[in-house]
Amino acid sequence: MLLTSDRWANPALIDHLARVRKPWEALTERIVRAVLAKWLTPPPLQVVEIGAGGGQLREWLSPEIASNTTHTEPSEPFLETLRRQHPGANAIRADATALPFASGSVGAVLALCVLDTLRDLTSVRDELRRALTPGGVVIHFLDLSTSPDCLFPELIAGGELPLTNFMADPALADVLSAKQKSLLPRVDEFDDVLAVKWDAFRSFVGMLAGAHQPIVAELGPYANLHRPGQLDPEQLANSFMAVSANPDRLFALNKALLKLTLSAHQMGRGWPLRAISSRTHIRNRLQSAFDSTQGFAVEFAGPISAREVQARDATLSSDTRFVLRHAGRTMKRGEGVANEYGTSVEMLLGAPAATRVANPDQVIRQTTVEVFVARRV
Q1: Is 370 helix (H, G, I), strand (E, B) or coil?
Q2: How is domain 6-144+280-305+369-376 classified at the CATH fold level?
Q3: Shortest CA distance to 376 belongs to which of 132, 114, 39, 139?
Q4: Where in the chain are the domains?
Q5: Chain centroid, CA 345 distance in Å
Q6: Does 2 have pLDDT greater than 50?
Q7: 355 confidence band (pLDDT: 50, 70, 90)
Q8: Is 139 helix (H, G, I), strand (E, B) or coil?
Q9: Which of 114, 125, 193, 306 could form a cystine bridge with 276, CB 3.0-4.6 A?
């Protein structure tokens, strides 16, 4: 992963991400290998990974592709971890804006959870175009929740403030009256951000703070944003990720934001909210950056899924039929609930569809990876 803030240089992040990925690693590897089997056949002689971090993607590569891959990483601590965990890997320190490869010499560029962190996507795109041979491909995998590093600055620059999606919390949404729900936007369960006009939010919170209303203190990372000089996109992104990773803190913040929004409406100062899927945002951003005017042809953009059948364990109720990991969230589903998310690996490779569960003692576990493929023309 590329160095966009201090957290991307902290070796502890590698261990944390490994723990998050572990329960879904076998399914994720199936997706990665299916994608590479489709778009890297036969494997090019020169494959480059950008933002390699500690080498997680290398663990999912076939031996043939891994032997032809040079892993690049700008963070020395991450690079040391990669070399220690994969002593046979060809790993070098380099930034994706200045790759040490001759123009037109690279057959494929791979990346795992990199392009969603970049504020300067244009410079990286231009460097990849320079290094790639005509017909070479860029393949990006996003198996976790999307980083807000590029979304937050764009929203803030446009006069909007990104909030956690409190409407996606069923414990809160289920207790709202019909009238209250009419004041709030319709959201998809995978919309992870609500955007509010910054001026309206700032003035209302500032008024409440001046009146010493206790709700202001409940707003966590948003409590002091009405003060001059407090709206820092990177700091807010860091706080947003920290809160989102803690269920108790996230619930408390969502509850406070919901109460704040309804209070604003009751006082005649309500604001419209815009629901945003950060995955859809980064997908659209990549499609725009790698379009035909920039010397690329986008060949795929969207989620790819893999599933497996497992015996039901004690953590699952008898009515749970599906356990889904999508867009960084894990959810349990019952019978009759839509459970197809994106393109299956079987569909991608033209293989028979996966077997469905008929045994009540079994459940389907399914995960998705957001995949982006663009070819240099």
Answers
A1: strand
A2: Rossmann fold (3.40.50)
A3: 132
A4: 6-144+280-305+369-376, 151-191+193-276
A5: 20
A6: no
A7: low
A8: strand
A9: 193
